[in-house]
Amino acid sequence: MDFTLSKKHEMARQLFKDFAEKEVKPMAQEVDETEHFPMDNVKKMGKYGFMGIPIPKEYGGQGCDILTYVMCVEELSKVCATTGVIVSAHTSLCADPILTYGTEEQKKKYLPDLASGKKIGAFGLTEPGAGTDAQGVQTKAVLDGDEWVLNGSKCFITNGEVADIYIIIAYTDVVEKRGRKVKSFSAFIVEKGTPGFSFGTKEKKMGIRGSSTYELIFQDCRIPKDALLGPQGKGFPIAMHTLDGGRIGIASQALGIAEGALERTIEYTKERKQFGRTIAQQQNTQFQLADMATKVEAAKHLVYKAALKKQEFAEGAKVSYSVEAAMAKLYAAEVAMEVTTKAVQLHGGYGYIREYDVERMMRDAKITEIYEGTSEVQRMVISGSLLK
Amino acid sequence: MKIVVCIKQVPDTKGGVKFNPDGTLDRGAMLAIMNPDDKAGLEAALRLKDEYGAEVTVVTMGLPKAEEALREALAMGADKAILVTDRVLGGADTWATSTTVAGAIRNLEYDLIITGRQAIDGDTAQVGPQISEHLDLPVISYAKDIKIEGDYVIVQRQYDDGYHVLKAKMPCLITALSELNEPRYMTPGGIFDAYDAEVTVWGRKDLKDVDDSNIGLAGSPTKIAKASDKVRKGAGEVKTDLDADGAVSYIVGKLKEKHVI
Fold it and tell me: Of A200, A216, B73, B226, which has the fewest beta carbons less than 10 angstroms from its beta carbon?
């Protein structure tokens, strides 16, 4: 067992850190304030390969491992959680299922443009009446000759309006299971610009305000028969497996937010003076920082462990990383919320002011406990594996 | 076209400077980066490679850990990397360094050699021009723009109040300014490839036409009498565009920013 990063991983981390500090950090406040999607930086990240880190080279990607991807999302999220989630949703929720379940033709068609950032990816499962309960999905796909006809809508879709390629989960059948009628789902690849596919309202959010969160609407949207991703009727396991990977991305985002807030707080408490000395010299501050740092470190171990487990899967081992991903996401998200809340508290009045990064970070942290499976869902996944 | 780029791993002066008892820099104890002028030189070479097609070889002399700077260069897009390292080369001043690097370059084919103007640890700006003397090549220093025209390079040489345009036949040597360009980032895949790539390691025996009296500490005419870290002082800020009220609110704003008031 070795907790030391290899030299190449250290160098990759330095690259992400340099990029984040130089390109992303100066934009973070404006991105939040104006709800502006940072397209220029996304294009730059595409140019330098950040949009295709775990995609094999044969499909135009960087051919790196999951840990490198995780460190990228982490370092970006330290300075801007919006940028972190853009990379995470694009990579984990769109490129990854195409890589895992796509036909050779689909991989060749979509992955090079996703890996280069020329096109952005998104994933649509959630609907107004279906979040955690997938059986509530109303979006339906019917085969009509050589085409599937999609009808329904998706909500809260990350990269919603800016994406070009969407993985959409719809039900394609109703089957009898243990005497009950249940929906059978399939996954589809839908391209922007397909007639019948449009965007609804843009969500105004508490945090990650620069990320493009939209409603997707499908009205008699006809897509080719070969837009089916994976076998027909396997959409639910594909979606769940995709979310396992997505949770590692969000766990990395949460970890980055927590680390970023801790760094800012250490800097601030060493400067801020009260009663004639810096607040870092007060024991309360010291103990708070110690607790924050310890939890961040524990979260990091869980997130990196989940990344290594997914790496085993990526290399062909028949392993599940569902529980590791759920634990990493559950813990890192709760740590992000706790650490950012304490960071604001240690900043005092300044922490409540928008000018200070921790104010944004606390708002950004909340979503990590909610999307890609709430903390409650993660507990269901974890306990389900314990009690089966 | 074949381009040789000379780079140096230097202490990141942001992390503080540490010395050995003999006054030389304790490089092992400091954070290390690729010297900024050299990085600009590498970027210039990579741009020539992108535009005209070229094979870019990076050369450095240093401790074994200088290999990191070479891998960074490979991850940015260099094709080959050579590390010149040997105990007998340690403690070299600019003369011994340029003699050593020239001895390494004599083993290589090249049309163009690019070095940085100067390193942030020594600030001498001597090694590049000295290498050109050892190799009997024309040198153009302080390059802020480089173009290729047939067998010639056309270079803008920076001066305080303008620049000269110089044309030289290749092979020649150019020293680059960090203002020359904005070096590219590495790519994650480039980093992985760089760690799979082989870095050629040369020692004293691999240097061509080099006399022992011109290498290492013994071959260095420069002797350091005393070295010390400079006392750090803020650069300060001069504002001339404010009226009295503007000046007051600017100062108050700064004091608030620093939590003084």
Answer: B226
